[in-house]
Amino acid sequence: MSEAWNHGISFADISDVGMRRSNNQDSHAVVLADSPERFGLCGHLFVVADGMGAHAAGELASRMAIDRITSTYFRGGSQLPSDEFAAIDLLRASVDQANEEIHRRGQENPEFHNMGTTASAMAIIPDGAIIAHVGDSRVYRLRGDMLDQLTFDHSLVWEMEASGQVHPNSALGQSIPKNVITRSLGPNPNVQVDSEGPFPVAPGDTFLLCSDGLSGQVDDEEIGAILSCLPVDEAARVLVDLANLRGGPDNSTVIIARVDRMPDGSATPPARPAADTQRVVSGLFPSAAVACLLGAGVLAFAGMYQSMVIAILLGLSAAITSIVQMQLSAKPANNRLRNDHPGGGRAPYRRYNAKPSDSLNEKLRTTVDELRRAADEKCWEMDWREVEKHQRTAEQAVSNGQFAEAVRHQAEAIIATMQQLREQHDRAAGETAIDN
Fold first, then answer.
1. Which residues lie in coiled coils (predicted)?
2. In sequence order, which residues have a C-beta less than 8 Å from that of residue 268 and are 6 or more positions away?
């Protein structure tokens, strides 16, 4: 890598087998451009794949996806013009070629028949971030206090919600298994690959790619707050540890990429609106109501009663409209945005508040407390002193309204708890080996 070249990215990546699986079927890759020329051609590439299949089929499928996507993308990037549409077409084609290769391999060997994998690939190029995606592995972007999900889950529950067949809060919506996916690489000779972007990138933007082993155990608001409060390496560790403390039923893979700076010549994000348009419009109606009612008084004084009635009706109409708009503007934003339907190219699909809060801190603490109660019931030998120290400091921070500081100490408590749990598992495994 050139000494003068600063790729401008801080990143961390972790892939963990979880607490209940014997093998890790996730794969991932991070490939950063090593020169300005390389960045101009291909940018930085990040990929997560979550394999599915009996025996070693899932591991093979996810590894093949990673290898084929990265090799095809970088080989083709050196032959394409510097154009964002060419780059996103190449990224989508790379995922498509991975599907063809995985399917062909599955057809050749009965042990690998119907093996499959998800794939979420993101490249940061001079024009912004571009994504190609199949399955329910996710790509998020944290900007300021908002966490956006930039990929649509190709899962049964998301497809049914998007089609309007079920409401997410209904009994039927809650009963649909969340891990049933409707699209993956490998089982079929052809697959529809969604593409998103380019999204202009700003310094401070943080992107997260993950498998559903993480997103299935850690809420979106928790992901956003942890990303906003912690350095990338600690955030990655805490997210995976949190998923494991909540049972770790699946492999968890996470890549976090924080943009420290964009190289010269990169696209600049559009400026945010200076004012809330809805509130500006709403302010016109109270003024109109007052003007109409004052005018009605003048008309009454002049004896123009018919015009007075019209002015009163107009004033009442403006007043009612103002009240309705103020009520609508006071409602909290819905996590599900209007473009919540399949096909790609319509991100973001969900939006979440990433601000740390008292309730979030309590939720993180509860996870540790529940594990501690279970450890006491099973008489595990675990040292809780460091955990207690961080929890006390977090409580003090909450009482002072320092919620970000509280999240940082709850994160330390989570890491310390998971370390204790690993040591307990090692002791139990050693005792079992001695008994045998």
1. 404-431
2. 200, 202
